[in-house]
Amino acid sequence: MLALVEVRGGERGRDDAKSACEARGWRVVDAYERGTGATAGVLTPEPGAWLLSVEIGLYGAVRRAERGAAWRVQRLARTASLEMYVRRAELLHADRELLPVWHAHTTAHRPAPPPRPAARAEVWAYRLARLRARRLERLRRFHVGVLVSGTPSEARRLARMPHANSPRHECVDVLSEEGIDHSQRRLLWEDDVRRRLAGLALWLLVMALAALVARDSGAVVWTLATGLAVVAFGGAVMVGVRLWDVLPTWLAVSFVTGLAAFVLVWTVGAGDSPGLDRGQTFGALAHAFIGLGLWLLVRQWTWGDWFAVVVPVLATFIVSALLTAGSVNHALYAESLSLSPEALDVTSFWRFVAALALFRAVDPVLLVPAVYGFAKHFHYLRNERAWLGVAVVALVGCSAAVVGIVLESADRAARDTIAAAEQRTQPPPYFGVTPEWTCVQPVVPVRELPGQGGVLRPQRPYVSFGVAGGDVVLWDTATDGPLKLPADRVRLVPVDTPRAPCPASP
To answer: The whole model's pTM is what?
Structure first.
């Protein structure tokens, strides 16, 4: 953005404003008194007022960029205690043309046409030889090691121009890198292509959501949703034809149709593919929204910032979080069963899986920075510090809600295990903890069998959590608590029918 900033305070204010702008990385292009220079005849002269032409680097969308630049100057004025006003904000947008790329190749191998008149056999031999030569050219068998870009005529002239190490080549032609004829190619611009890609993705998304609603709705809603899906497909086709204007229309339509069919099969389903339900679809959209919002939030960081600050912090956080979070779910689960975490013999793999599940549970927390990233990208944050405080408060609130959800998940799993033990049904597994029904046969007299938490009744099956620390961990429905027995004094026999009594010890 090129902003015309009025600074009041005389030459000292002008110098302080220039220093503050340069400290932010903004380049001051020009400086002159008000009513002179470019503002002569536009603004009335005023003593002590200066105008600065400042180039402001601004990340985000083009729309509302001028408003975002004005807000940044206002924040700088408050921070530096300067009297500054944005009198004009102009977008300096340099879009880049996407020129087609060509490979240069020699044409000395092409057959010479037969003299006229020529026999039919000679004509057909010439055509076959020319076809074979063109085929070999497309395989880059005669590539001369020159790459050029531009229109077809420009590409040929660039390929034939003399070089310091090679003379001028007259027997040289060019072949498109994509193998497409660019002679009728319209100009493509980088940002225009991005907007069309975003439009294509948006139309396909609307089509998939409408088809998903139509799949599980009544006649009236089905008709409306199907009509919306058809309209969205038409919009996707129109955008696709404009996007791939270097392709024939039928090929672009075929590509968009195939892409739309893939999206429909993935979401709605067809044949053996069941598709996605509404929960899965909106979950995928939420994850896409979070990922895009986080990317918009951090896209202004340079690679130096990533490797110097972000990567070490993320690596330390992820390693420490994986080492600690892997035990959180199991610790909560064991606490709900009145067990110690050491009583559950869980492998490192399942601790890692539990950590990933815990990270997935905190996905809603990431909605806050994602929304902040979208708001910042589209220049809706006038006072970033105030909204950053709001985001932090919302982040803390969402984190507290997520912690409650995680606690409830572990407690619910423990309650299901206890209910299964009381009802003599199969207990559910929980991240590597696989409770199973077993008969406990002591190898010593029962009266000599030490135990913690109760007394063993060999004729009744127990839910076993395995062996940990030299003890067999069981659940005793008589005491509604754990029962620990020495593993070297009992023998565990898995059973399939927990409702039947255990056989007598041999």
So the answer is: 0.61
